[in-house]
Structure formats: structure tokens, C-alpha cells
Fold these 2 entries.
Entry 1:
Amino acid sequence: MVTLRAAREDEAETLTRLVMRSKAHWGYDAGFLDACAPQLRIRPGDVARRRVVVAEDERGGVLGVASLEGTAPTATLGLLFVEPTVIGQGVGRLLYRATLRRAVELGVRRLLIDADPHAAGFYRGMGAVARDAVSGDASAGLVGFEVEPAPLVDWAREWTGGGPAVHLGNVAEFNAQFAGRARGGEGDAEGHAAAHDYACLAAFYSPRPAALVLPRVVPHGWIERVGRPLGWEGVEVYDGLVECGAGLLDAVRRRPALLSRLKGDGLPWVAWGSTSALGRVTGRRPAEGHLRYESKAAARELFTRILAGGGQPGIVLPAQWRARGRGAAARRVAARARAGETTVVKTDHGVGGSGTVVVTPGRARASGGARAALRALPRGPLLVEEYVVGPAPDGGPRDLTYDGFVGADGRVHGVGGAVMEVRDGAYAGATVGPSVVPAWAERPLASFGAAVGRELAAAGYRGWFDVDFVTDRAGRLAPTETNLRLTGPSVAFMVAARLDELRGAGHCVRIVDRAELGARLPDARFDELCGDLARACAELGAVFLPAIPTGAFAPAPWFGFLVAAHHLEVLDAAEALVRAAALSTGNAFDGFGYRAAGTAR
């Protein structure tokens, strides 16, 4: 167990010797070390002024030292050295993160680092950004970095109080509430299986999980691999509670010892979405009808009401008609197709774009008519909607979303906008971060999203929500639906908030729901692949997180992941690298130098 404390004046010489041993570890000759000694020396009178801290083991042995020098708004990481025998064991990471937290407390907004070339990879891996020049002696070959220390953002503190939380992966349970009204198999075994895979995202329901409660068994060691770059420690995992069916919270109720353990520390509980079973376990019953705006028809009524009040420039609402069944929907689609118009047809409930079909005139003809084009949709009422032609003239993103939540006190908290990846009407991923949403879309997106939040709060809803939009050719936003639950973009926001707190502000995060694997990978080989991907992404300046691991040994193997970086071009490169490497697992030798697995467990 490594702990941190303030250095004492009487150990200044001891700490100086540690610094010199650490510097010498990289093979510098005696002449170079002598030249560095005056700059690296710690004097008794410097300990407090330079804010020197030490890392020590449980026996009081000093393992490392760091200093935070200067005054706000700009300061310097003056020293960060680790005893050579423990280099690579996390001591430097602990000292670095503690220095960033201290910098935040002191109001530092720019932290400068002049790094030894051998330490450049460490600082890059910790999220520091290279700068053009160094403040130290250029002849020493120092590498300049900087970081913007940042606290946990306000909305994240409001979400769970800024501390750890219990995360419940009740995706199938939430979806089952709409069985019979939704498309996507929410009421059958196939739909539950898909939802149980998606429940792995419970790891990211807040910036700091204390425990995960999951329906399906996840690979051993997965949470440690995910948690390492996110600074998580001691996360408890309770998995395999529901291999079939949807009743995760009922399964928890049937385990009194587990229920007592989860409630014992008084931590907040965060679920994918609100259900009656969750209310029974927590004792907090939701308001009657609080989820009614999960209905796409009801959401449209809400949008219409907001727009009737005015004050929402840049928002346009496409026309929509409710059809009693497939025949009525097909007749309207056929009439629109004959007029050369594209139509969106969707069920009143659906998950991730399931239950939605975009019918172009060409698709109607190729399918053998409008009725045939709607064959994949279930029987019952359908919504027929005008297709919004886009994207905007500047070639910006087509699909946007706004995330926020309604707190227990009814206050609406804005989180932000994201760009979604949608393929053939189905959600495939999202990107969040600075400058991701085009500047022209930021104000209308936030204004309309906040207005939706206020309506939800007035209707008694409490929890996370998002509003999805498409852009038209005039640069306007058309709202399409609300989701009264956590989402893929919400996961990206949580990870961005945590990385900004640990590594400095400005992270862009992308969640990719599904990447195909070239071979079925048992747990050990999948973990090996993830380790290789983490190292390869780090070389690009990105963070890799395996988000959904449970499909890696499926008959058609796949997994979901997140990547994070300070620049979108690095994010793009990291995603391309991960996808290519995942597919290469089908080769005899893949790009990372190990033999891919394709055999049974």
C-alpha cells in the first residue's frame, strides 16, 4: 500500500539522493549527473516552498518524490522521481495524479512539465500535451509538456455527489417495460441477450463506480483493465445474476446478503433506467407515468408544445402521421414514394434505432412495394414521418444528441451535446468533447434540450435523459425522440469527465458499440488483445477502454470499446487502429505479434 504525505525538511538530503538515483537509472554518465545536480537538489528550506510530497510504503520507506512549484494560474511540475526498484509499479502515476489534484485546489490552470526524454512516454501516457518549447535548459534535451488541471465537472458532482456509486446494469429490465410496444426483441430471449451485453456499460454509469451489478458473467480481470486508466481501485463486481430473462433487480432482492452489502455503505445507486423493480429495492417509487415520453408519439407532442411557446430558433419539426397498422402505413409511404419523397417509418418504442425503417422511392421499388419494405416492422400502430433531408450545407454532422438529467430536487442539469454515428437508422456510437458539436448547433441544441428537461421535470421524471436530432440542409435541428435513461453518449460523457479530472481538461471520447473480431477469443486472449490495443493507442496519444467484452467468444465475435484523446484526428486514428487490429485476429499472426485464437474454450 503506497501513501502520500508532505515531505519534511530533515529528509531533504535523503530525497535528493533518491532523485539522483532515479536520474542515473537511465544510464547518464557521471559528468552529466554532476551538471544536473544543482538543479535537482532539494534543500531543507525548499521543502515547503516547492510543495514537495513523497510516496512511501507501509513500512515508511520512501518510494518517490514530486513537487508543485509556482503560483496560479501557471505552475510547474518541478520534480517527479521514483526509486529505480519500483519504476513501472504505479508510484509515479500516483504522484502525478496527486499533483494535478493539488494544482486544482490552488487554482492552477496551466501546469508546465520539462521532462527527461526517458520520461516523455510516461507523461504522454498520463495525458500531458506536448508544447513547442521548454522552460529549462534546452541543452539538457528536455521535452516540454503542459496540462490543464481540472476538477470534476459540476454536472458530474451533481449526478452522484462526486463520489463512488453502485452501478446496476438493468438494461433488459428497462426494455422489458415496453415489450409488445417496442421493436428489437425486448420481450424475447434474443433481445435479453443483446441487452445483457449492453449492460456491461454499467461500468461507466458514473465517473467512479464502487460496485457493478451485472446480469451476465464478464471476463475475469476486465474491470481492473478498464479501471487502471480511470483511476478506479477496489471496484466490486457481482455478475452472472441473470443469464436468461430480464429481472436483475429481482435477482438482487432474492439475495439478501448481496442487497445488504450494496446498501451497507449508503452509496447512491445508478441504473440504466427507472423500473418498478428498482423502486421496490430502493424504496423510491417513481411518479405515475413518468416514462411516458419514451413513446415517440408522446415525445413529438412534447416537442410541439415547446415550439408553440416560441423562443426556439433553429429548431424544425418534421411532419408525422400515426397509422393504425402496416397497411395504412404502406399506403402513405407508397403515395410519398410516387411523389419522389423519402419516408421514415417507426414503432412507438425502440432501442438504438431498432424498429425504424427509412424508405426511399428506390427502396420501395427494390423491395417490391411499400408494404414489403415495412415487413421487418411489427404489427400494430406505426409512426410515418417526413424524412429530413440533410446534412447542413457546411457538411457537418447529420445526427446530434443532447444529454442532461433531472436531479432529485427537480432541477435540470445540462451535460452537453454529442455527435452520433447512425447507420441505416440504427445508432452505432457517439463522440463527445470540445468542438465536437459545430458552433452553429450548440445554442439551439442546448436551448431545446433544456426545455425538454424542464417539461420532463414538471411531469415527475427524475434521472438521465437525452434528445436526438437530425440536421437539415438549412442548418436547422429536427428533434426526433427522447430517451429517459442512460445512453451510449452518456457513457462517453462519464469517461470524459473522469479523464479530465485525472489527466487534464479537453478530452474527446468516442464510444463504438460494435467492432467485429476476426476470430473468437477466449477470455485470456481477449485480455491479451486489449493490452496490446491499450499500448498501441497510448503511442498515438489515446486511451483505449474495452467497454463491452461479452461478445468476444460469440459465434460472430465482436466487442464494444471507447477511445479518448485530446484531438479528434488522434481519436480517428485510434478507432481505425482498434478496428483493424480486431479484424486481424483472424490471421495466423496478427499485427501485434501473437497467434490469434480461434478454437473452443
Entry 2:
Amino acid sequence: MPAPTPQFSSRRRHLLRLMAAGAALPWLPACGPLPLQQGAPPLLAGDLLVDVHCHAFNAADLPVRGFIQHVALHDDEEQVVFATMERSLLPWLAALLIEFIGSAAKSARVELEEIDSGAAGATKAASGQRIEDELVRALLAVFGMPSLGLKNLRPQDLPEDEEGRKALLRAIRAETGGDKSLPGILNEDEARATARSLLSGLGVIARYIRWGATLLLDRRDIVARLLGLYTPPNAKALFTPALVDLSLWLDDEPQSDLESQIRVMERIQRLQTTAALHCFVPLDPWRQLIDVSSRQRRTALDLVRWAIEEMGFAGVKLYPPMGFLPAENSRFNLSYPERASENPLFPLYLDHALDQLYRYAAAAGVPIMAHAADSNGAATGYSGRAAPRFWQPVLKAYPGLRLNLGHFGGFEHSLMQPPAEDWEEMVGQLGAAWPDDRVFADLSYLSELLPGRDAAKAKHVRRQMAGFLARHDPQLRHLMYGSDWVMLGKEKDHERYTETVSRELAALGLDTARSKRFLAGNALRFLGLHQGQAGRRRLEDYYRRHQLDAGWLQRVDQYRDS
């Protein structure tokens, strides 16, 4: 096996990789299915859509400081971002977002109490005012008088480059129509006007701010937004939002503990009437080894079993770019965070925790979804640990395991100089080695194909995708649809994602059978939702226990041979 240190630092899905600003929707438009564009392909008119890779967390579920700095706003020196703006503003943009969303989202425990008590969520007007006020406060904390004080950042956390702060304020004023000749500070009136402009603006920075505003909503409102955006008209849909546990690797704890996140999302699952919702539970192997060593009443793996067996969850999410390989960590001399590397047995413990998960998942028919893009690493070089080739020993050791390698389709490594093997080719090789229903991949966050993007890159993706299908998956039995929302929400025209992906596949000349496999059939096999499969039995038991309508499962049976 090749050495696990990555050779490339291309991060296609970083937040700062947005294209030139264009028309944006008003902040948080009303939910509801989007009408099909004239001439849209018939793929969206099918009777079932499965969004197998999406998210519905809010800021209270995230280690905000680490998430913004290392996952959403990682400053890759080789990445060309904000071509018309100074690079020095990027750390200050991270500081503004952290100050904005750091502690204003509702915790999972509080939201669960509200749901169980029958309390209605905040009105749209009330949520909008609260979010505007938080943004005003954050703008004044970063750009106002020093005496205001910070709420979510310590003074020592602020970047030292004063020119970067001024550059960000100039960029904000340029987007919002403010006077760029004013001093590099804001008064309260200007901060209020700036906040309102950003929350409804047309520019790149405004999209970041609106994305941050979405993370301040209640989870039930985020779910409603997800279903409203991506449920096609006249169709049933299943969404499988994935929770994440990134805290230890990012050294920053969220407000909401994982158990309370599972509980509130389980309750939200039961509230749905327009589409089905069944979440993925995360497993961090580092947390598992800490829980075992500290003799926690319920370890991370115990939470996984509980979520799968009792709470209606559909599968498990792993996030290797945080810093671990899917297997055989102890074979390589890898770097780890300092507080972990103090223990020489740390790699061995990671392997043991992961083996425990795979053993359970293979025996119980639980699918695993993994981040498999060269992006979102918690430290330099960590994103390369998500490469699909590192799953080979896992698939070999656990014959019953079903795996989804997330974020397929960018074909970015063949664009590097010199060109290298695309990770998508690794997926194809794994599929050839295990041709049964073992290896899947989803096309979530394939932003290269959204309207108005780089035409050359879009052409490259189309050409490479056609070649991949011809070589590795001519019957399209392994690729699946996914949106990656709420993360996709930072992209211009993300509302058109389902339509866009369907159009692109239609342009490849797919017949009805292959289209149905991509939009639903492959995901149903991956999730194990056909009659007689373990996932189906668990969901049927869950529906019976809670006296829920399981009618949508009847449509699953129509895809048995797809």
C-alpha cells in the first residue's frame, strides 16, 4: 500500500472556493419544493428520491472555532480564493463567522425540551431579528469600538494583521454599497445597515453570512429547509442527514453533547410528514478509546448501537480527514495532534476502535458512509487519509460491510500539475475488486456543475464521468445522489442542485432503469431497506413502536431489481 501522506492539497469543497458573485436569493426564502425548470429531464418526476448524504446540524452541534477554521475556512496556500480581494482578509472572515455563530444557536437539549412540551419554534420574523441582532453584535465586536468586547473569541484568538481586518471591512462595504473611504471601524447604525445588507446581499461574503445564519436556526427548521429545497414535486423522498463528531481532532467542544443530538434528531424524524428522515450517527475512534479508558457508562460505540437499534438511525458516518486512516493506522508513522501522540499506542487504539465498529456493522447489516474527498483535513496532510484506497483492507477483512465513499465526481487530481490518479479511479478499482453490493459512492457537493461555474472544469468533470461509467459502472449500480446540504448552502444556486445533477446525468443518455438506480435504487441497496434486509426490519420495528405511517416503504419494494 502506498504511503498515506497525500501529495496534493487541492480542496475542492472548501467554503472559500466560491466562484464570482452573482444573484442570490433573499435570506432564508420560504420552504417549499422548487418548480422544475422548463425542459427539465424526467428524472425528477420519479416516484422516489433518496438524498443519501446531507446534514441538518446547527452551530450548537459543532466545535465552531475548529469547524470554521479547519473545515469550512481552511486557508490553503495553493488555493486561489477571492481573486479580486486580499488574502489577508481570510483569517478575519473566520473570526467574524466564529463571533457570529459561536454561541447563539439553540442546544439540542433545549430544542428537545421544546418539542416534547409542544412549544412551537420561533417565527420566521423572530428568528430573522435574532440573527440580525447577533450579526450586528459580531460586526461591532470585530470592527467597532474596542470597548464592546468579544463573546465567542478571546482577544488572543484574533488575527494580528490589522491590514487584514481593514481589507475585510473594505470588501464588505464594497458588497453592501458602503463608503469604502470611511475609517476601519463601524458605528452601531452602520453595523445595522451592513448586517441587513449582508443577510440579503448579492456578494460572496454575503453568502458566507447567510450560510452562517442557517446554522443559527433550530434543527427542525433546518430540516424543513432541506426537505423544502430538495423534495421533487409529486415524489416521495428519503433523507439521511449525518451527524458529525469532530471535537477531539479540532480541540473544541460543541454546546450539544452527542447523546442529546441523537435524541433531538430522533424526535424530529418522527415529526416528518412530507418526506422520510432517518439519520446517520457518527463514530470518532478517538472518542471511543477515551470512553473505554475512562470507563464511561455509555461509550461512543454504545451510542452507535443505541442510535441504530432503538432510535431509527440508518447508518454510521466516519470522517477520516480529521486525522485517521480507515484501517492499519499502526502500520504507518503518521503524525497526530500533540495531546494524542503522547501515547505511543494511540494508532493501535484507533485501529481497535475501528475494528469494533466494522465487526458490529458487518454483522448487523449497518451501512457506513465516509468522507472520501481530499478536503476538510483537521491539520496539514490529514485530508489524504480519506483516500478511497485505504478502505481496501477493511473491505477484505469484513465481507458483509457496505460502504459509501462520499463526495465522488470532482476528478480533481487529474487537473493537477503533474496530473495524478483521480480518487474516483480508486473507487472504480474497489468496485471491481468487490463487485457485489459492497462499494458505493455519492455525488454530493459536486459544485463544479452548478450554473455559472468554471466551464473548463465542468467540461472536464463531464468527460471524466462518462469515461468512469464506461470503464467501471456501465449499468450505474454504484453511484448515488446526495446533496451535502446544509454544507452545500454556501454555494450560489445550491437550490438547483437536484435539477442540475439530474440534467447532467440525462445528458449522458441514461435510460430509465439507470436513472432510477442513481436517484433511489442504489441507495436503497446501500441502506439495506429491501424486504428481508436488516435495515428494513429495524425501520419497520421503529415505525411500529412509535405508531408511525410506514407507507413510503412500500415504494421501496418497487426498486427490488433496480
